[in-house]
Design a protein that fits this description.
Blueprint lengths: L5 H13 L2 H8 L3 H15 L4 E4 L2 E4 L1 H30 L3 E7 L4 H8 L10 E7 L1 H9 L5 E4 L12 E14 L1 H4 L14 E5 L5 H11 L5 E6 L2 H9 L5 E4 L3 H8 L2 E17 L7 H14 L6
Parallel strand pairs: 3-4, 3-5, 7-8
Antiparallel strand pairs: 1-2, 5-10, 6-9, 6-10
Length: 303
């Protein structure tokens, strides 16, 4: 059997629906002769009679009724597809795809990205977390619009991208009330031999933080290391150890995790970058994030 000609099938479907070749021709803007010829070609291709004449009217044969049932499904589904495509641009929000490098604290990422959701025409936010190298690879092929990282883009990756400093923040030390009740002395001396939760090796501020301890002859007792900042904060909330986070998020962390800030330093600062393929920022959401970072998220701090 030859392959199905859907134009011929549609002509058949319209004749079956209107009950007349003349009326079908009017709907399809074709002459009755053209419609009749197309029907004959369809019957030849199917090797079956679809209509029989009953006086001046056309009646479907058993095969014709069977074909009509399929034609109803085919063209109803086709009309639904067209309606869906017509409505889709108005209904679907544009996506803003952001990569979050593993070393960026979750609370900090939220504060930096949230302004994009307050735009008048905010799109649908898509966040991906992973290693910086993998995120930059996705950025290079436009699977991401922006990557937020706690360090500039490494030169050795040979990825076309540009670093845009969003801001920097000193560090604040936090502890659960039940843990702080067991410690004595003033900050920073109380950190000596106190249980401490250390950021993981992929967190850029870790080395500077350890150097800060050494310079002050402080030896906190490291009871855990965490790559994931949210997990670190959760352990800190239970009183497992003191932990640090960007000062820019201090109020949020105290409220969210019911911990207390015990001291801060601006000697050690954590920097945050927006990495994009644009030398000059143009994406509306990235511009909103950059503007909010400069005017609100990051504030000048003194040690």
């Amino acid at each position: 059997m030859a392959s199905l000609n859907y134009k011929h099938l549609r002509y058949f479907w319209m004749v079956a629906k209107t009950g007349s070749i003349v009326r079908a021709g009017q709907q399809l803007h074709r002459t009755p002769q053209s419609i009749s010829g197309q029907l004959q070609e369809l019957e030849t291709a199917l090797d079956a009679e679809l209509f029989r004449h009953a006086g001046r009217t056309l009646q479907l044969t058993d095969v014709g009724r069977h074909v009509l049932a399929y034609a109803d499904q085919i063209f109803t589904l086709g009309d639904e597809l067209l309606d869906e495509l017509r409505e889709q641009p108005a209904r679907r929000l544009p996506e803003f795809k952001v990569g979050i490098a593993e070393g960026v604290p979750k609370s900090m990422a939220y504060h930096m990205i949230e302004p994009a959701l307050r735009m008048d025409e905010a799109g649908r936010l898509v966040c991906r977390e992973g290693g910086l190298a993998f995120l930059l690879a996705d950025l290079a092929v436009h699977r991401l619009d922006m990557v937020i990282a706690d360090r500039p883009m490494p030169n050795h990756l040979h990825v076309r991208g540009f670093n845009h400093l969003l801001g920097e923040s000193g560090l604040t030390f936090f502890g659960a009330p039940q843990l702080l009740a067991t410690l004595s002395g003033e900050f920073p001396a109380l950190l000596h031999q106190a249980p401490f939760l250390l950021p993981g090796e992929d967190v850029s501020v870790r080395t500077a933080l350890l150097h800060w301890f050494d310079e002050r002859n402080l030896r906190p007792r490291i009871v855990g290391e965490f790559d994931d900042s949210a997990l670190l904060n959760s352990f800190g909330q239970t009183g497992t150890g003191i932990f640090v986070a960007p000062t820019a998020t201090a109020d949020y962390l105290c409220e969210q995790y019911r911990v207390r800030a015990i001291g801060s330093t601006n000697v050690v600062k954590e920097q945050f970058y927006a990495i994009t393929t644009e030398r000059r920022l143009q994406h509306p959401a990235v511009l909103a994030i950059s503007k909010a970072a400069q005017e609100d998220v990051f504030r000048a701090q003194t040690d």
